[in-house]
Amino acid sequence: MTGFLPENPGVLVMDVIAEIRQRFYVENETITSLASAFNISRPTIRKHLKTIEELIYQRQNQPHPKLGSFHDQLEAWLEQEAHFPRKQRRTAQRLYEYLQVEGYQGSYTSVQRYVKQWKKKRANSPTIKQAFVPLAFPVGETCQFDWSQETISLGSVIQTIKVAHFRLAYSRQMFVVAYPRETQEMVLDAHNQAFSFFGGVPKRMLYDNLKTVVDAIFVGKERRFNRRFLTLANHYLFEPVACTPESGWEKGQIENQVGNIREWLFTPMAKFEDFAALNAWLATRCQELAGRVHPEQLSRTISECFAEEQPLLMPIKANFDGYVEETRRASQLCLIRIDRNRYSVPAKWANTVVSVRLTADRVRMVSEGQVIAEHIRHFSRDQLVCDPWHYLPVLEKKPGALRHGAPFQTWDLPVPIKVIRDRILKQDKGDRAFVDLLLMARSLRDNGLETLEVACDLTLQTGIMSSAIVLNEMRRLTEAANIDAGAVGRLQSLRYLTE
Questions:
Q1: Exposed, middle or buried, 158 (CB in 10 Å: 0-12/13-18/19+)?
Q2: Which of 391, 390, 385, 371 has its CA nearest to residue 341?
């Protein structure tokens, strides 16, 4: 009959009970006829004639017949691992596999139900419930840090990003900044950004046991912090403190902030063209949210409390150079592979090992203490990032590579230079001729490309497209610049003597 619960045919649902009571009390049917009509016993009919409240059926104990003697073993494992960090505890599936090794022949669902019931019973136990002490932080002393993962539309592409959260524990002033990843160079850059936003450095920074911050966890509060991270802490002179594992209440403010920021700033989905626009907006919103009432000092706003705290932060003497360094070998193509992208180095360093310094937005190649190349960092895949000037020594020996060389096909040159290049390349030995112009421009160092652009423009005005004319114009411009520089130098010397 449809009125019965499938798990226990002896228990009726409320609509059937209502029909029984109506037919007995209103239509005056007998108990015997009701028992025959509903195919249930007369004692059950009598019981439900007194039922007025809605029945709620819940099985109190689920039998586990095949677990049998394995109950004690399973409970011992659960009790032992209850004191472990969450990531070190075995799942129900893993416990089931270990019981099979011990000889268990039952199903996985029995183990799963038992583990679920054990955890629920333990969570509801009065002895397990936790109590907390209200925390108070001195002015300018503590800042809490954490990461969150958010989903946004960046450049019309939906992406998962990482957001670094900072919160001054006294004033509740927050700062958030977004990155494509959660790597160590991002952590270092986030601290630079946060301290610049706060206008100072707190005395203590409170963290989870992040792999980019903590290398090893020992007994109690003892930690071995990452060496590069300690360099950051030593630069700004703050004390790093790592929380006890699985004790989020020690930095409850930042834990709450993660949820609040997701609701306030990332719901509905935020849409920006790039990270620069996103982070500028996040910084502005952090300032605006500081206009809210302080959660404890109800007569003041967060910004008013921050105005009290900010002068007590330690001053910033210089920004930390937040790079992570590793060594890589440049290929024969003068390229170094980093995160599935390739970046160029000058031809001089082809087939040699150089140091690569990665920051949140830059890639720097260093050799013998000198920066030999620098590029904007890309986070998409299979990108070729080249500086055409790096390949000029190769063109000097192989000028034919100018036409089909990948670095030169995407070279964004000024329009006069492009026009002259296209005309010269159509001439006999045009490759060599244009390479000579580039070599001349390189010899002029910083303003070489500008000088070449002016010389090409002057050549176009003559109507004669010749590399010799461009070279002549470049020499005249260079000599004029040297004469002007010499005149300025003599004038400065004369002024010094007259004074």
A1: exposed
A2: 385
Q: Which of these, 80, 62, 83, 85, lies nearest to 95 by C-alpha position? A: 80
Render pLDDT for 316-360 as a digit per residue (tens, 0 to 9): 999 999 999 999 999 999 999 999 999 999 999 999 999 999 999
Q: What is the largest CA-CA distance in the chain?
A: 131
Euclidean distance between CA atoms 342 and 329, whole angstroms: 12
DSSP H stretches of helix in 241-398: 252-265, 275-289, 302-309, 392-397
- How many CB atoms within 10 Å of residue 360? 22
Helix (H) or strand (E) holding 457: helix 448-462
Which residues are within 8 A (CB) of 268 and not within 5 positions of it... i.e. 6 or more apart? none
CA pair distance 290, 302, nearest whole angstrom: 5
Is the separation of the CB atoms in 399 and 432 below 8 Å? yes
* Per-residue pLDDT tens over the stretch 115-164: 888 888 877 766 555 666 777 889 999 999 999 999 999 999 999 999 99
* Residue for token pair 């930690």: 223
Domain ranges (residues) in the chain: 4-49, 70-123, 142-312, 324-385, 391-488
Q: How far does CA 334 lie from the centroid of its chain?
A: 31
pTM check: above 0.85: no
Strand pairing report for 353-358 and 362-367 = antiparallel
Tokens representing 52 are 């007025």
Domain 142-312 has CATH 3.90.226.10: no
N-term to C-term CA, the chain: 115
Q: How far is 381 from 98, CA to CA, in rounded Å?
A: 42
| Measured distance CA(75)–CA(64) in Å, rounded | 14
Checking DSSP bridges between strand 204-207 and strand 142-154, what pairing results, if any? parallel
d(CA 95, CA 108): 9
Q: How far apart are CA 102 and CA 218, in angstroms?
A: 33
Neighbours of 348 (CB within 10 A): 12
Question: Is the Cβ–Cβ distance between 373 and 365 less than 8 Å?
Answer: yes
Radius of gyration of the chain (CA): 37
